[in-house]
Amino acid sequence: MTALTGEHRIGKRFRFEAAHYLPGLPDGHQCARLHGHSYEVEFVLTADRLSGPGFVTDFGDLAPVKMMIDSALDHRVLNEALPELVPTSENLAAYLAGWFVEHVEPGLPGRLTAVRVSETASSWAQFEVAR
Ligand SMILES: Nc1nc2c(c(=O)[nH]1)N=C([C@H](O)[C@H](O)COP(=O)(O)OP(=O)(O)OP(=O)(O)O)CN2
Ligand SMILES: [Zn+2]
């Protein structure tokens, strides 16, 4: 059998409920008002070679992400929980990627390639990590 070269990629999704408002929008814009979303965030990891039984990274090794989301973001007003940023999907995706690379990725066999944030069923923003 021919062995193909390529990359392995995995994703893990997390959900949380949170409120936000977006300053700097035109008068009357609906998103300038405090409102809530059922957020879905997906972390994508990549590896050239598998480790252990055949993992990019054990999905269980992403448990710290759930702990952080549950303790810091779930059922919070994101403008207060993350005062250093305007909580658009784009900014949240970049923030979560930075947090992951600093706090979770060291020691994992896989590397983070992207974080995708969805506020609604029909929209998403993705931050792709440049290496
Ligand atoms: N590029 C971005 N655009 C918008 C963002 C964002 O984070 N990035 N965020 C918002 C608001 O948070 C808004 O709540 C979500 O916008 P929208 O998808 O328009 O929400 P609706 O519920 O109105 O979606 P419909 O599918 O049209 O019902 C705005 N824009
Ligand atoms: Zn919103």
From TrEMBL:
<feature type="active site" description="Charge relay system">
    <location>
        <position position="75"/>
    </location>
</feature>
<feature type="binding site">
    <location>
        <position position="35"/>
    </location>
    <ligand>
        <name>Zn(2+)</name>
    </ligand>
</feature>
<comment type="pathway">
    <text>Purine metabolism; 7-cyano-7-deazaguanine biosynthesis.</text>
</comment>
<dbReference type="Pfam" id="PF01242">
    <property type="entry name" value="PTPS"/>
</dbReference>
<dbReference type="GO" id="GO:0070497">
    <property type="term" value="F:6-carboxytetrahydropterin synthase activity"/>
</dbReference>
<keyword id="KW-0456">Lyase</keyword>
<comment type="similarity">
    <text>Belongs to the PTPS family. QueD subfamily.</text>
</comment>
<dbReference type="GO" id="GO:0008616">
    <property type="term" value="P:tRNA queuosine(34) biosynthetic process"/>
</dbReference>
<feature type="binding site">
    <location>
        <position position="37"/>
    </location>
    <ligand>
        <name>Zn(2+)</name>
    </ligand>
</feature>
<dbReference type="GO" id="GO:0046872">
    <property type="term" value="F:metal ion binding"/>
</dbReference>
<keyword id="KW-0479">Metal-binding</keyword>
<dbReference type="InterPro" id="IPR038418">
    <property type="entry name" value="6-PTP_synth/QueD_sf"/>
</dbReference>
<protein>
    <recommendedName>
        <fullName>6-carboxy-5,6,7,8-tetrahydropterin synthase</fullName>
        <ecNumber>4.-.-.-</ecNumber>
    </recommendedName>
</protein>
<feature type="active site" description="Proton acceptor">
    <location>
        <position position="31"/>
    </location>
</feature>
<keyword id="KW-0862">Zinc</keyword>
<dbReference type="InterPro" id="IPR007115">
    <property type="entry name" value="6-PTP_synth/QueD"/>
</dbReference>
<feature type="active site" description="Charge relay system">
    <location>
        <position position="119"/>
    </location>
</feature>
<feature type="binding site">
    <location>
        <position position="20"/>
    </location>
    <ligand>
        <name>Zn(2+)</name>
    </ligand>
</feature>
<keyword id="KW-0671">Queuosine biosynthesis</keyword>
